[in-house]
Specification:
heterodimer; A: 182 residues; mainly alpha; 2 domains; B: 161 residues; Immunoglobulin-like; 1 helix; 8 strands; 17% helix
Amino acid sequence: MKRQHMVLLLGFTLLLITLSSPGIIYSAFHSPFRFLVIPSQQSEAENAINAAQSAINIAYTHLVVADRTGAPIIDLIESLNNAIADLNQARTVYNNMDYTSAITLAGNAQYIADSITEQSQHRRIATLVQLQVQIILAIAVTAIVILVTYLALTRWYKYRKQQRRDLLQMEIRLPDEEDDES
Amino acid sequence: MKKHTQTVLTILMFGIVFATGTLLVSVWILPPPQPTPAIALLNENMEARNYPTNVTVNTNITLNIEVYNFMGFVQYFYVRTKLANDTTMASTTTQSPASLLQQNERIVSNGGIWRFPVQLNMTTPGLNYRLTFELWQYDSALDAITYTGVWVHLPLNVTGP
């Protein structure tokens, strides 16, 4: 082969590689021709999914505590179910090797779960404070009722005692008056 | 003692006896309610009858599952769908060793009901299948998913085309 032909062939090959490289790079990272996956991204997605699941479990535990305190949590349950749905979707896209989407979805699920943990704690404390105020109020009202009842009974007892004494004196006086008349 | 004082005392005594009796009955005699979840299997029209028990291969089966939370507090439930047979059926103490087809999960409020559809495509023919739905829950004390011992199954025959 002549040198001129060699140069032409090399030039043509370089041109072909240059033109097709964007396609190769795109195929490498996108479905269904993905064959190049950065291992760190896969492990990052796996970590994100595990972290989201842990966050959901923690949020659920806080929800249970808040629920037992009597705090309103219906809306928080719905939000946590949305986080679970996001996490499930993250697992699905992870299985389809779409790690970028998996990281995004798992991150979103973790963010929601962390926010629910915080809100559950706030609501639990608020409910406890409200309960304490109610107990203090109930004790105060009971004390006032007992005091008023005691005072009323004491007065009534004194009044009755006085009435009986007056009556007794009148009964004692009456025979004297009769004696005077006789 | 005057007559009205006697009446008041009698009423008071009856009240005390009634209240004490009610308390004793509720605490010692009546058994405390057992917190338990429940699961129900319904057909595609949300009825507990006319289940698809004989299907052909590659036919889509649509069923509905209802989970009831009678546990007394909010619960994190999982429903695991498995294709078992007579020898690999679940019991109240052990889960089915059959392979997992799919898993659904949701947090259910106290006294709440979770309804969801299940769509399956049976690809392998066979007789006396037991399409099993096991109810699991997340136990925060153990930080693990545990089997509740509650399950429901559908006898299924899958025949060739």
